[in-house]
């Protein structure tokens, strides 16, 4: 029986060519698909969703990709999405929520060097993505890059140029892939959440990185501008300063204004324990919602996805702290 795999292209470095203004995606789909290694029993089709540098990817584009996948859901057994690396982690996390419960594998991949360049990593990544998509028994959204597969909500780009650009943060790698062979490394538990899928996002959020000297006036702007959610990258385990430039009253003000405040950490590994230190406990008491060991890319996508259906703080708190697509509470 032939396995039907659909490749959806969105642009990115993998499809880029040199222009007067640097690399820009402009490769035809029929050229891109010619680089895939043909496999017995696997039939490849290709379709373009968009063609852009992933720096230009917007939340509305996540929705467009998700809608395209669902439109072809019944016709294909697996999906490969080629994507630029700079915002791939945001897109993979977003698709993990937008397509939550999908019963087929959706695999994102791309490259650090364009196809057609002698030192490209794109050919390997295409081959590996196809190997994983056609051999895995898992369903959901994944990133395959440099011989490793990771769940979509845990992939983070950690290098700007190296081939091993992506890491699985606070979660095991799912598989290693080489020369057409996939070796399973970890099998995530199957989710059993009665969450109704919705393919929509509300991008009206604000992401703020704490730094020594942060002026509290930024919080007044957030309220005046009527942002519907705030994510703060705190220090260490979830702490924010309460001396001199005291941020705690500002967290309280946002909470009282009905704006959920999600607290994550600037530290990439090992998550946070907001109650470990006084500086974190004060944030929690002011209404800050801890995000545990989630990465910022996943928090951004998850909050936008939640805000598309509710503005109720208690519901947002419950959903943010509910494990969805393996995004939370591993470490």
UniProtKB/TrEMBL annotation:
Pfam families: Asparaginase, Asparaginase_C. Residues 204-320 form the Asparaginase/glutaminase C-terminal domain. It catalyses: L-asparagine + H2O = L-aspartate + NH4(+). One of its GO terms (molecular function) is asparaginase activity. Its EC number is 3.5.1.1. It comes from the Bacteria. PROSITE patterns: ASN_GLN_ASE_1, ASN_GLN_ASE_2, ASN_GLN_ASE_3. GO terms for biological process: amino acid metabolic process. Substrate binds at residues 54, 85-86. Keywords: Hydrolase. It is an enzyme of class 3 (hydrolase). Residues 5-182 form the L-asparaginase N-terminal domain. Coiled coil: none annotated. The keyword Glycoprotein does not apply. The active site is at residues 13, 85. PANTHER family: 60 KDA LYSOPHOSPHOLIPASE, L-ASPARAGINASE. Belongs to the asparaginase 1 family. This is asparaginase.
